[in-house]
């Protein structure tokens, strides 16, 4: 099989009611990235996910997943999906263990008898998201963050090389968010492609390498540093973003102490004087800090 990649070329998706949710959308993702799928409500993020999973069929354009059609990729279990909480019926009486075992269904025969190997993988997946102690709990009896972790474990059990996460941080506390981000990073380092839909702009620079910016088409896609610019974000979000200008930064030391803060009211996105992104978490970004210092002639 060719190396892992997603190639979306000139894709148009129209729903049966005639609404065109995406028009002429194109982007490419290669293996070993965490990419953010960013856009306002109704911009086509879920539609793009559904297209990648084969739930909706484009009326034009092509989607190739590691050189396969979407149907072939589904047979090969290449793509795993972690849904938004609203999509799940939490009253359905299944345990955490059952949900994660569902990730193995595609690997079993029609009788769905779990092998020792299936059980080992489910145990390992639960351990990886820190949910081993909850294995016998009913899923309806979990907190929002725990539910997200269980569905992430299901994606791991499926061994999806491409993992699509729909708004994984909604209703999740900071500790759980950090744990999920750490896990996503290790999955990326294993060479997988992680595509995360979010409208939480502020968190994107903290954990994503790539960005796919959508507004009924793909407006821009590529490395974060190139795509996450003020101009692009204004194009994607229009009047939705609020901007604050500070003459004196109270957040942290910046070049010239002038920053601009762009926010969608959840978490701020901070641009330094040079127009570059500022990061809350500088750990692991020593290269950028050094680059900035060089630019400043220090
Ligand atoms: N089954 C459907 N039939 C008709 N139109 C639909 C259908 N699903 C979505 N749409 C429309 O397509 C557009 C894109 O919807 P989509 O759900 O992809 O947006 P989104 O970016 O995921 O939004 P959100 O951030 O609110 O989840 C919207 O205008 C929506 O109303």
Spell out the CATH superfamily of the largest domain. Answer: P-loop containing nucleotide triphosphate hydrolases
Number of DSSP helices?
10
The whole-angstrom Rg is 20 Å
Q: Uncertain segments of ≥5 residues (pLDDT<50)?
A: 246-252
Arrangement of strands in the largest sheet: 5-6-7-3-8-9
- Listing every helix as H and every strand as E from the N terminus to the C terminus, the arrangement reads EEEHEHEHHHEHEHEEHHEEEEH
Number of domains: 2
Bound compounds, each kind once, are: adenosine-5'-triphosphate
Q: How far is the first residue's CA from the last residue's CA?
A: 48 Å
User: CATH fold name of the largest domain, please?
Assistant: Rossmann fold
CATH class of the largest domain: Alpha Beta
Structural class category: alpha/beta
CATH structural architecture of the largest domain? 3-Layer(aba) Sandwich
For the biggest sheet, the summary is: 6 strands, mixed
Domain ABC transporter: 6-241
Protein name: Chelated iron transport system membrane protein YfeB
Family: Belongs to the ABC transporter superfamily.
Organism: Brevifollis gellanilyticus
């Amino acid at each position: 099989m060719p190396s892992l990649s997603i190639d979306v070329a000139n894709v148009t998706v129209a729903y049966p009611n005639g609404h065109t949710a995406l028009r002429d959308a194109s982007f490419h993702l290669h293996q070993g990235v965490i990419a953010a799928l960013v856009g306002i409500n109704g911009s086509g993020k879920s539609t793009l996910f559904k297209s990648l999973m084969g739930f909706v069929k484009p009326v034009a354009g092509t989607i190739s997943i590691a050189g396969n059609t979407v149907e072939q990729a589904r047979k090969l279990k290449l793509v795993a999906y972690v849904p938004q909480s609203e999509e799940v019926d939490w009253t359905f009486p299944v345990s955490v263990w059952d949900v994660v075992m569902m990730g193995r269904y595609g690997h079993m025969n029609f009788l769905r008898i779990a092998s020792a190997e299936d059980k080992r993988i489910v145990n390992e997946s639960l351990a990886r998201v820190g949910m081993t102690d909850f294995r016998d709990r009913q899923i309806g009896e979990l907190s929002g963050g725990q539910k997200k972790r269980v569905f992430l474990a299901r994606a791991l059990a499926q061994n999806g090389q491409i993992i699509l996460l729909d708004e994984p941080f909604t209703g999740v506390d900071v500790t759980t968010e950090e744990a999920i981000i750490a896990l996503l990073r290790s999955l990326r380092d294993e060479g997988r492609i992680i595509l995360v839909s979010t409208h939480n702009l502020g968190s994107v620079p903290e954990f994503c390498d790539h960005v796919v910016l959508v507004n009924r088409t793909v407006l821009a896609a590529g490395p974060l540093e190139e795509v996450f610019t003020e101009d692009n974000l204004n194009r994607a979000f229009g009047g939705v973003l609020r901007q604050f200008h500070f003459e004196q930064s109270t957040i942290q030391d910046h070049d010239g102490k002038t920053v601009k803060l762009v926010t969608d009211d959840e978490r701020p996105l901070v641009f330094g004087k040079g127009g570059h992104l500022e990061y809350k978490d500088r750990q692991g970004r020593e290269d950028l800090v050094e680059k900035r210092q060089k630019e400043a002639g220090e």
